[in-house]
C-alpha cells in the first residue's frame, strides 16, 4: 500500500488498556473518526483492525513495514472474524473515567463476564442512557456515544451482592490475565457467558435450556439479562441447583449433564463443581430407585433414620428373613429390602414428622412440641414398628398453626413487662392449655376470652404468638 497515510500513535498504551479503546483514544489526535477512520486508508474494516491485533496494526498505522497475514487480506466486504470472536459490545465505568486524568478503557471491562467495576462495585454501563443503544467499539469517539451524549455524566447502579457472588463463583475476577493490556477473553469465560445468556433466555421463557435453541454468538452478558438471571443465582448455590433440577425434571439427568458440559464446558468453572456434584448425586439417586433392593445404609439415608431404627424394623420382622444377603463386594451381611416393601415403609414415614421436624414447621422449641403432643394439640401416631417415639401426623402441623394464627388479634399496643407469656411457653411449661385443659383452652380462644397476640407483622412462627397472664388467670388456666 504505497499511498497509505501514516498516523501518529503517540499515546502510550496503559498496562490494563483495551485494544479497541486504545485505538479510539488515539483517534481524536489523528482527526479520524473511530476505528473506521484508522482502517480506511488501508482498506481495513474495524473488525479487521480488531482481529489483526496490536502486533500487526500498530506498526502498520505508524508506517513501518509490515506484512499482513495472508488469511486476513484487506477487504471491505466481509469482516474476517477469527474464532476468538472479538466483540463489538463493550462496557465502561463512568465513575472510573471521572477519576481518570486521561480516561481510557480498561481491558477487563470488555470481558464477557465483567458486569461490575471491581474498584467501585457498581454495574458497568453497557448501553447509552440517552439513546438506549448498546455501547459499540465502532463508535466515533471514546468518551461519548454516537448520539452525542457524553458517558462521563451517566450514572450506574451498585452491583448487588448476588451479581458479585455469581461472577466470583464462575471466574476469578482479580486474575491479572483478565486485566492485562489488550487482553482477550478466555474460552472458558466465553462459554460461561454463553451459558448465562442461555439461562437468562430460558428464564424469560424464550428458549428451551438445551434443545432447539439458536446458538449464542455474542458472549457478552448484558446487564439487561440480570433480572432474568436473578431467579437462578440469588440463593447460590441452593437456588441455582434446585432451579436447574426443576428445569430438567422431565429429561434424563445424565444426558442433560453431558449436554451442558458439551455445550458450555461448565465443568471448567470452579463454581459449577457443586452443580456437577448435585447432578451426580441426582443420578445416583435415580439409579438407586431403579434398583430392586436397598441396602441398610441407603435406607438410613433415604428415611433419615438411625442404624438402630432400621435394625429394629428388621428385628420386628418387617423385612422377610431372606432379606439378609451377602454383599458380593464387601462379603458382609447386607440388608436387601425389596423396592415395593421399601416404598410402603417410606409412604408410612412420609405421613409423620418427628419432634425436630415438627418444631421447624411450627416455629417453636422442641420442648413446646413435646408439650403440644402431651396435651393432645398434636395427634401422636404409632408409626410402623418403632414404638415410644414422638411422632405426629404431618397433616396436623400446618392445621394447628393455621387455626392459632387465624385467632390472633394483632395488637400494636405495648405491653407492660411480665404480663405476657409466649404461647409455646404456656404449653411447654405446662402452665395452662395443657392436658385435659387443651380443649377448654381452645374453647376460651374460640369465645375470645383467651386472646392471642402477636407483635410481628408476618405470622409464621408459633413463638410469635403470646397470651396475657391476666387472660389466663381469668380463664382459670394459670397454675397457682
Ligand atoms: Zn469504576
Ligand atoms: Zn447514545
Q: Can you walk through the features of this model?
A:
- With 480 residues, the protein is an alpha+beta fold.
- It is 41% helix and 7% strand.
- Among the domains are: 187-287, no CATH class; 294-350, Multidrug-efflux Transporter Regulator, Chain: A, Domain 2, CATH 1.10.1660; 352-398; 404-474, no CATH class.
- The chain contains 20 helices and twelve strands.
- The strands form five sheets. It has a four-stranded mixed beta sheet with strand order 9-11-12-10. It has a two-stranded antiparallel ribbon with strand order 1-2.
- α7 packs across α8 (226-233) and α15 (355-362) packs across α16.
- Bound molecules: zinc ion (2 copies).
In short, what is this structure?
By secondary structure, this protein is α+β, with helices and mostly antiparallel strands. Helix content is 41%, strand content 7%.
For the sheet with most strands, the description reads:
4 strands, mixed
How big is the Rg? 34 Å
Count of helices?
20
- Which structural class matches the secondary elements? alpha+beta
Ligand inventory reads: zinc ion
Name its key features.
alpha+beta; 12 strands; four-stranded mixed beta sheet
Topology:
Elements: H1 19-27, H2 34-39, H3 46-61, H4 94-99, E1 116-117, E2 122-123, H5 161-170, H6 176-179, H7 187-203, H8 226-233, H9 238-247, H10 253-264, H11 273-290, E3 293-294, H12 296-303, H13 307-315, E4 324-326, E5 333-335, E6 337-338, H14 339-350, E7 352-354, H15 355-362, H16 366-374, E8 391-393, H17 396-406, E9 408-410, E10 420-422, H18 423-428, H19 437-447, E11 452-454, E12 465-468, H20 469-474
Parallel strand pairs: 9-11
Antiparallel strand pairs: 1-2, 3-6, 4-5, 7-8, 10-12, 11-12
The structure holds zinc ion (2 copies).
Residues 93, 95-96, 117, 119-120 line the site of one zinc ion.
